[in-house]
């Protein structure tokens, strides 16, 4: 019946149900075993007048039970499946499985994997090889062909990537493999999102021996992405997009998060019916908008719905100052008119209420602006001059425009980037041009380096700078005759900028050009106290290290090992496998590299027309259930009931034996209770438990790393935090799950419970007693290892003639121990490859070698290519402060900085700790692996 969600893998077995009548007939003719009775004379006399009856057939209920049991066995052998899935076409010479694992596939990645698993399982049942390729992986990733088991392993190891697909390159590689596999089936598991070059890519894929196509797709393209997040005057403007073809209106909620992941603002974006773009504004205060670190759409678990923000998204407060009277009738002649129009889109403008500079400048400084623009300000009052200088030194940006007042005021060395000549240069003057001057190429050392020179701009009047040896370095824009148009200078933490023209269109046409807006925007970027990572051309020419990455599911994660530094250039930057979306730079400044740019639009992927047979399937989980095990279990339960029924009918479960067993059990219980009461004292005397046994059992229940309690609180807390950080790293990266670190007092605690004891040497700590050192010596002779850490890398080393206090204390301790000969870890030592491949063993410091027991047969490299393979060194010595590099706080953040400040040094230190633990626990296991081929050869295998 088609309506019944049940199928059978071996339906022919169901013909066995026809044997049920025969079984019924046999059971009816086979009487149960007669009941055996012990001879009871009086009972026989009591029943002497009763008719003797012997059953001639099994009772109906027992027959029904056995028939049901037989039916269940037959049904189980027929391999029934509830809610069976359709058999997928995975036959032919091979199955080529091409899977999109880009950011658009992250939301329903589980369904895609389940669909691919069914295809691989069907291919494995048909015995055909599988070619499996992912469109968002490395270009050199292996694609097969593989057997079904290996293909499943690669499928389980794959994960969605936060980058677009590269279908043309991947499809071309698959087509190349299919040239040797004629008649293969090709399964395309697409993300439903169209991309450039898809048509040519599909033609290439199917041009080589494809006999059948399996096209898997979702019901519809249900993606929503965030393409714009701009900090404007009245709020943060957001732009979201969706795929076309949805006539229903929709709303999405966007949340803004700070750098600690806290949600601080919301906004609702509404898609009108049939519209693919929605906009909204987060109307929050200026100060709160500057705390935004990322914006994400709720409910969208993919990288396209997240947008990270850098300093360029933060609006700056800019103060405007002018001494000219505002003419309401002629606003175009106002010195601040063009400056206001240029800065309003990306800055919050503030102006003083007083026209007196002595009051106006403090009013502006009290509002803490990032930049102040002075339009033709001559002499600055002495009472506020120093305060303005201090503001620049502390990170402020002062932008000044020339004019008649500044030209006549003379030089103000503290607040001008260059020295000025008195007077001005104009057409018809003593220093005059015959024609207006144009702007030439912008110097490469300034913030306008990537801008094109404005061809329409001319300058007819300017103030000149005194020629000095450093005038070229301070010039940001020049005229055709080589004189400066814009000069700039770093002063303290701030910047001084001078436009050698007026801000209105009287001396130049620059204020009415588009280049004027872009130049002011670049200077606003420079005004940030901490600055973006690419705030100037010098930083833009360098590469930026990965800082925080956007994962495929939209979460912010640490950089992956595949991420590479980003080199910012003008224009949109491509999102690639080596440069995934996220933040690049460091804590001092980051650059936002987002997945979607403002011009992005979602287009559904339309299935191409194929010349070969096509099977359409939907992404779905496998909901089929195999009933064979359940039916076999039910049959076994019925068999147990049948056995009990036979025992009961045979008298084994009759009343009298039960009473006898009950009486016996009661007697045994009474005897046991009496024995317990009478022998209570003996049982108490037999208890050989000792104080401390419980603590000892807890210590050996899990592998734990110990550290020596030195009595110095700072050292002991760092040791514990460091070993906790190493323990977490071991649990994350290895199969070892150590317990919490243990602090030990070497004078009295049991040391044999711990494979490794970390001992930080502090000259201020008390010198251990001779008994304590003897306990350490016995611990090392019994197989334990002590890791001594002098933490004095930047003092004199272990072998120096003039040693540090920590090294001197270590020598005093080692003088009472049986220490073997030591050597720095050789390059071929087991420690360098026990888990990670490590050329060195840094800690919080780098440079000190790790000392181990010297190998006595190190020269015999042919016999044993891995050194020191017959045991574990009982002593390790370093000066790199391992615990300081491993130490983490309650949130898992590092406690101490590394020296030098290199993020990878801490990773290498943790890997060194993993190698040491693996070396402690495996001993010569790693080195003995080199003899496995020889042993197998001698055994004849």
TrEMBL record:
Name all DUF4159 domain ranges.
704-921
Membrane-crossing residue ranges in chain numbering:
6-27, 60-78, 631-650, 662-681
Q: Which InterPro entries match?
A: Aerotolerance_reg_N, Class_I_gatase-like, Double_TM_dom, DUF4159
Q: Where is the Aerotolerance regulator N-terminal domain?
A: 6-80
Q: What keywords is this UniProt entry annotated with?
A: Membrane, Transmembrane, Transmembrane helix
PANTHER family named among the record's database cross-references: BLL2463 PROTEIN (PTHR37464)
Q: What is this protein called?
A: DUF4159 domain-containing protein
């Amino acid at each position: 019946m088609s309506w019944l969600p049940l199928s059978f893998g071996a339906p022919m077995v169901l013909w066995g149900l026809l044997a049920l009548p025969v079984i019924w007939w046999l059971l009816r003719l086979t009487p149960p075993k007669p009941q055996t009775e012990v001879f009871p004379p009086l009972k026989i006399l009591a029943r002497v007048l009763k008719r003797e009856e012997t059953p001639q057939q099994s009772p109906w209920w027992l027959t029904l039970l056995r028939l049901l049991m037989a039916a269940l066995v037959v049904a189980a052998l027929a391999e029934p499946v509830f809610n069976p899935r359709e058999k997928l076409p995975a036959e032919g010479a091979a199955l080529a499985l091409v899977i999109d694992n880009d950011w658009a596939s992250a939301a329903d990645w589980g369904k895609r994997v389940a669909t691919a698993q069914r295809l691989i399982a069907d291919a494995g049942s048909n015995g055909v090889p599988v070619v499996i390729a992912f469109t968002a992986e490395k270009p050199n990733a292996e694609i097969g062909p593989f057997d079904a088991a290996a293909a499943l392993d690669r499928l389980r190891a794959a994960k969605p990537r936060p980058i677009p697909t590269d279908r043309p390159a991947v499809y071309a590689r698959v087509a190349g493999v299919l040239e040797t596999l004629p008649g293969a089936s090709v399964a395309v598991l697409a993300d439903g999102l169209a991309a450039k070059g898809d048509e040519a890519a599909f033609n290439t894929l199917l041009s080589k021996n494809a006999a059948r196509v399996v096209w898997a797709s979702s019901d519809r393209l249900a993606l929503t992405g965030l393409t714009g997040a701009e900090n404007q005057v009245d709020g943060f403007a957001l732009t979201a997009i969706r795929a076309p073809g949805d006539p229903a209106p929709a709303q999405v909620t966007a949340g803004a998060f700070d750098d600690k992941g806290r949600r601080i603002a919301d906004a609702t974006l509404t898609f009108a019916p049939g519209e693919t773009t929605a906009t909204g504004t987060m109307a929050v205060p200026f100060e709160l908008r500057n705390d935004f670190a990322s914006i994400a759409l709720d409910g969208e678990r993919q990288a396209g719905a997240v947008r990270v923000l850098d300093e360029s998204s933060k609006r700056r407060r800019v103060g405007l100052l002018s001494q000219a009277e505002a003419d309401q009738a002629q606003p175009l002649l106002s010195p601040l008119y063009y400056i206001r129009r240029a800065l309003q889109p990306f800055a919050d403008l503030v102006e003083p209420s007083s026209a007196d500079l002595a009051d106006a400048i403090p009013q502006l400084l009290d509002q803490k602006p990032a930049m102040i623009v002075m339009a033709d300000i001559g002499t600055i009052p002495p009472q506020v001059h120093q305060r303005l200088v201090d503001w620049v030194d502390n990170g402020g940006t002062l932008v000044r425009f020339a004019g008649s007042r500044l030209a006549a005021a003379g030089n103000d060395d503290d607040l001008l980037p260059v020295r000025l000549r008195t007077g001005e240069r104009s057409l018809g003057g003593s220093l005059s041009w015959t024609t207006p001057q144009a702007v030439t190429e912008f110097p490469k050392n300034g913030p306008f380096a990537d801008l094109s020179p404005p061809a329409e701009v001319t300058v007819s009047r300017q103030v000149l700078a005194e020629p000095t040896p450093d005038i070229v370095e301070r010039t940001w824009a020049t005229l055709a005759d080589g004189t400066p148009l814009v000069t700039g200078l770093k002063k303290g933490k701030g910047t001084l900028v001078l436009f050698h023209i007026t801000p209105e269109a009287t001396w130049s046409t620059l204020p009415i050009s588009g280049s004027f807006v872009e130049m002011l925007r670049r200077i606003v970027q420079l005004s940030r106290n901490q600055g973006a990572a690419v705030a100037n051309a010098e930083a833009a020419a360098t590469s930026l290290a990965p800082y925080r990455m956007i994962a495929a599911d939209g979460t912010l994660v640490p950089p992956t090992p595949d991420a590479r530094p980003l080199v910012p250039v003008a224009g949109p930057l491509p999102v690639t496998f080596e440069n995934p979306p996220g933040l690049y730079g460091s804590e001092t400044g980051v650059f936002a590299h987002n997945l979607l740019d403002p011009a992005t639009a979602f287009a559904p992927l339309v299935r191409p027309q194929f010349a070969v047979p096509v099977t359409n399937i939907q992404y779905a989980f496998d909901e089929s259930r195999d009933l064979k095990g359940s039916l076999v279990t039910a049959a076994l339960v019925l068999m147990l009931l049948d056995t009990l029924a036979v025992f009961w009918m045979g008298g084994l479960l009759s009343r009298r034996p039960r009473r006898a067993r009950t009486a016996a059990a009661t007697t045994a219980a009474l005897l046991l209770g009496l024995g317990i009461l009478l022998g209570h004292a003996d049982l108490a005397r037999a208890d050989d438990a000792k104080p401390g046994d419980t603590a000892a059992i807890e210590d050996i229940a899990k592998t734990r790393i110990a550290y020596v309690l030195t009595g110095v609180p700072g050292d002991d807390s760092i040791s514990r935090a460091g070993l906790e950080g190493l323990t977490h790293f071991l649990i994350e990266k290895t199969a070892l799950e150590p317990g919490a670190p243990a602090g030990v007092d070497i004078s009295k605690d049991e040391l044999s419970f711990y494979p490794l004891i970390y001992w930080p040497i502090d000259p201020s700590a008390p010198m251990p007693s001779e008994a304590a050192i003897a306990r350490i010596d016995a611990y090392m002779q019994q197989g334990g290892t002590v890791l001594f850490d002098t933490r004095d890398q930047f003092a004199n080393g272990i072998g120096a003639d003039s040693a540090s206090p920590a090294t001197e204390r270590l020598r005093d301790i080692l003088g009472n121990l049986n220490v073997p000969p030591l050597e720095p870890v050789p390059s071929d030592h087991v420690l360098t490859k026990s888990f990670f491949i490590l050329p060195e063993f840094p800690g919080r410091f780098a440079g000190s070698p790790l000392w181990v027991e010297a190998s006595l047969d190190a020269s015999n490299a042919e016999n044993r290519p891995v050194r020191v393979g017959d045991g574990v060194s009982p002593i390790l010595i370093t000066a790199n402060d391992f615990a300081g590099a491993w130490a983490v706080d309650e949130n898992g953040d590092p406690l101490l900085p590394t020296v030098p400040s290199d993020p990878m040094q801490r990773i290498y230190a943790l890997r060194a700790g993993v190698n040491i633990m693996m070396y402690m626990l495996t001993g010569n296991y790693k080195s003995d692996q080199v003899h496995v081929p020889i042993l197998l050869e001698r055994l004849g295998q």
